[in-house]
Amino acid sequence: MLRRAVGVAGLGLGVGLALAVQRRRDAIEAVPPELRTVELWLPLGVDNRLVLGIARRMLREPTDPVPGVRMARQSIGSTSQTATEGADQPPVEVLVFEPDGRTRPSGAVVFLHGGGYIMGDPESSADTCSRLARDLDVLVVVPRYRLAPEHPFPAGLDDCWTALRWVHEQAETLGVDRARVAVVGESAGGGLAAALAQRAADADVPLALQVLVYPMLDDRTVLRADHEGRGRFNWTPRSNRYAWTCYLGGAPGATPPAYAVPARRTHVAGLAPAWVGVGDLDLFHVEDVEYAERLRAAGVPVELHVVPGMPHAADHRLEQTVPAMREFRARWAAALDRAVGAGALAGSGLPGG
Prior knowledge:
This protein is 37% helix and 16% strand. The protein is built from 10 helices and 8 strands. An 8-stranded mixed β-sheet has the order 1-2-4-3-5-6-7-8, sandwiched between helices.
């Protein structure tokens, strides 16, 4: 009897595994062949502190600055204008990338790494940021913002705001033109960049452009039952729910504080011009397109770029080998160059290093 029960259980497990593999294969069929990687087969998800700790260690991949760019670490302090009212704002470490022979005053970019508000670090973006600094002839500043769940909102945003205010307040010393300052963010960094653009508009801090790369903008995506086949790779609904819960300090869906969820802002007129890019297989596709359309309807200049068949953050693995991914990164780099750079890219995009 026991042997038969074990056999039936084993058969059930085998059938279940076969069905799961078939479902995964069917999902991958929606991804263009050139964008398919081994990682797409992995049912990755972050939904508890143990897995988060493992993911943080696995995703810690420091990169090196490209030749011709100096990287410096600096601790910057907050002012009465940087912290959210009542918040205890510690010093913020920033990585500063400066190209050799930079023209002064130049433009500046505040770059915000991704990681769902719960992972990531500035060093992982050193290659990208140093290339931007070199090829746009700008200063690039990358804050080490605090992460949830240890530091829920507004800690991370306050750190980013401190970095942006520092660039403006120290513009003469840094050799920066205050009229040519932009923010760039990827994934959760894109959400922070959008929130910074909103906060900057409210505080009358000049911002030339907000570049939102597949940004994490709306906690209400967690509440949607049907994602129409999106979010099966790299960043899933399960991870999204956990990350928003960590960042907001509670279950998504309740009315959040100002700037916590950029897509919840009612009035978006007067915000900085925006570049928004996302893949149509990305979990954030709907919220990103909707936000771009709201900005445009409010009179904000917007460039929206949607890549067919692109999963979340596919460009990071495939930029060097897949033309569509090079073009995706080239488009936002070219927009950034037009807004704050020296015009060297002339629409050609982000160089390969």
